[in-house]
């Protein structure tokens, strides 16, 4: 329900006045270090004041902070201190601060409040921030809070929650500056003058036809530098990127990056403009999605340092158990060669080296492949070429490492041992290189997230092949008599 | 040398006209799949045309693409095809396409050109894109190309190259819309009308004092919605984020994210406005920096799938050699227990399980910690609390895995073996959990990049401790007689 124009939200609690004179140049103030983190001395000061129960001191210390920094502070202290802190700075706890909080910390804080209180906060937020506030809560809590919302907010929130998580429909802003296509630049400026609303920043004006379909966009700097008499349709950019309301957030983020967008129109199935996404939302998504790989590859789950213990345990342990499975498979291979090891215990000493380096080589290749798949740089069109390239890199790496360990083993044990371990190393690293590319691709083809599923399989392949190649070659070469 | 106003670049080669009518709604065109990648059939069509030497067909196929997509296409084909493609589409090879190319691919293409040709392309780019074009080239090539530049461009490029890589000074745009503070909104609009330049997008106007220091910013939507008579100093935002010219790109990206910025002023040591950074540059940096961890953690280096073989080899092999070192340390521990293994070969079968799971647990924790350090969520203020939390998660994980493997080992081997492996598992996972947090923190305290250096040390600790705990307990418990 987007009408051309701007929608007003009522604000019930004092928002920090935007034109208040505040210290500029955030870097060199006494509360932040050179990497823009709150200084430990400052945080300790706040903690001491909390311990003394000195609410006034706490308030005075926190008052000059930007909402994002207040959120940081709430995240740094432990849960007990957090409750005290929150109660000491009630009117600094604006909706801005709440919107900036880490998801887990915010969840805990919201759970401690009554539904009416949460609804009050939600009312002051933009729809997308309100939805973010509510979406991870218990379903019953969620229903209770939504029931307390004003009808307009309620409708917007429910409409957003109707879309799946992490899609454009869930994340978009419903406040869009949209104007009909017959206007001139002058008409538009007059309209903006009359209906000016400083609460909702916008960077572009969307031009729509009678059926509410976006036909072009006008960047604000174009509007400002074009004579009033010019028709919008003559100055607008027709080459536009439309985001379907069901598009996944990662795809949206990639589009924004690729086409260097500041904002983009979100359209429903029939092509009607229903909202917009702006680059500051995307920035958050990009960081999240790009940083996910390292966490997913190792099975660290959410990987948020603020994740509660129970959740961190349950997401990580399942991957450790999966790895237990692959380790047992590798051990079964060792058991198969048990007699050989009994005869030559040096095999037990050296075999973990082959498996370990192979595992590392596989992980390297996998990290590169997963990232390339995620950024659309590894596709069916260049798979063969990339595979061949990765194999050559693997052979070069394998050769180098094989020579080093081969010489060491030959000197410490026997020349034949040197040959065996060198050969096993080359084989394992080559296999690791291929597996590191192919396994993620297979999962991608099966529509599974490569970052999540590949690690277990690549490790299984490199461990098993490492032991098998080394022990097998040792037996085959007659080392064990 | 930024004067209030806008600077014009001369364009020597045809740029794609911006108001050309182009197909909108990029998603559902016949060349892209639903994830906005070029369809394999389309790419094959281009390749077939290249093979047939049919330059006209190639041109017709490529002509409708957005510059970013043309860059994608150049990246997908192999180096031979790329040369043919480039020669078939010479006037589509705008500076926009060159700016969008992957670094490695662009380097190869630029090396194939004469300095004068590269200089021509560089002239049409914004300074920051021109610098990106030149910065990775051979120093001699670089000098030759710079010598061919127009004096103004030459000065700008040399000034940018004077700053270290990946700093604000290197990456900033020198085109800034800056106006003196005594103007009114009306004055500003008139000024923009006269000096309007559609070539350089801007989203904010910076207000400077007589000493060229930024005193505030005016968002364009505020300018459009404020009456003409109002003074800029009354409507501008004084609360501004200033980026020092020496700030590292990762810090800049974090600031943009934290304070939800669209653009920010870059200032030199004396506080003078020298340029600006905008969020579309940041988006690229964020993706790069956030995605780096997985690659760095595994020693995959640049981790760019387009990296030439020689570079991929040299960055990855050094990590494999480092891992060879840690594997040898672990093997030395096994050798120490050689006699025990000779007596009970089951030890050789089971010991890799303990080391492997410990390694995974360590990697999980490390991935989380590295990310948290990079996003300023793990600082001295909450280290102790986080460490204690990670230890508890590790003990829970260790306990779970220990019970599973302990029961299996007790059934397959002997009850005492079950106890030994279970105990070793708990010890190793606990150690892994602590190491996964402490090692990155130590490196961060030593001003080294935790993502790069931690992996080797965490692996060494978990492998060594895994073998030592298991084999040591096995001997101590009398399993080996």
Question: Would you give an account of this structure?
Answer:
The structure is a homodimer of 481-residue chains. By secondary structure, the first copy, chain A, is mainly α. The first copy, chain A, folds into 3 domains: 24-164, MgtE N-terminal domain-like (MgtE N-terminal fold); 178-298, CBS-domain (Roll), CATH 3.10.580.10; 309-476, Tetracycline Repressor, domain 2. Helix content of chain A is 62%, strand content 6%. In chain A, the strands form 2 sheets. Chain A has a 3-stranded mixed beta sheet. At the A-B interface, helix 1, helix 3, helix 12, helix 13 and helix 15 of A face helix 1, helix 3, helix 12, helix 13 and helix 15 of B.
